[in-house]
Design a protein that fits this description.
This protein has six helices and five strands, in the order H-E-H-E-E-H-H-H-E-E-H. The chain is of the alpha+beta class and about 140 residues long. It has a single domain, classed as CBS-domain. The strands form two sheets. It has a three-stranded mixed beta sheet. A two-stranded antiparallel ribbon has the order 4-5. Strand 2 and strand 3 form a beta hairpin. The radius of gyration is 18 Å and the shape is elongated.
Length: about 140
């Protein structure tokens, strides 16, 4: 299974914010959409990702103010990226090695979507269920 398969199922739409967005507004947006990250975009170009983990580690634990701190100040910018042709095993490997939960996907230099750890787990579970189903059909001779 490829990253493109996950994106075709979930879509490539990402929730975007400006780098100057106060962290509190980014958090409200994540809560309203029931998501764990937002993409930071400036002038149509990907800048980074703000996650709930960024907030807890770079705002709360440091005693910063959510209203005065901007997305640009806490966003993750050094995440490895994927292409639609990468397989989900590569996603799992990167996420495990780097201890991250979100990966940006780029196609032809443009952001094509975000893959989360839950997306990868769901894809793996679907693939395993398909394998089980095929094996059951083979065993039963159907």
């Amino acid at each position: 299974m490829k990253v493109a398969d996950i994106l075709s199922r979930k879509g490539s739409q990402v929730v975007q914010i400006d780098p100057s967005t106060p962290v509190i507004d980014a958090l409200r947006l994540m809560a309203d959409r029931n998501i764990g990250s937002v993409v930071v975009v400036a002038h149509g170009q990907y800048q980074g990702i703000v996650t709930e983990r960024d907030y807890s580690r770079k705002v709360i634990l440091l005693g910063r103010n959510s209203t005065d701190t901007t997305a640009a100040e806490i966003m993750s910018t050094d995440l490895p990226s994927l292409s639609p042709s990468d397989n989900i095993d590569k996603c799992m490997e990167l996420m495990s090695q780097k201890h991250i939960r979100y990966l940006p996907v780029f196609a032809e230099g443009q952001l094509a979507g975000i893959i989360s750890m839950s997306d990868v787990v769901a894809a793996k579970m679907k693939r395993q269920q398909e394998t089980i189903s095929h094996l059951e059909q083979y065993i039963s001779g159907s």
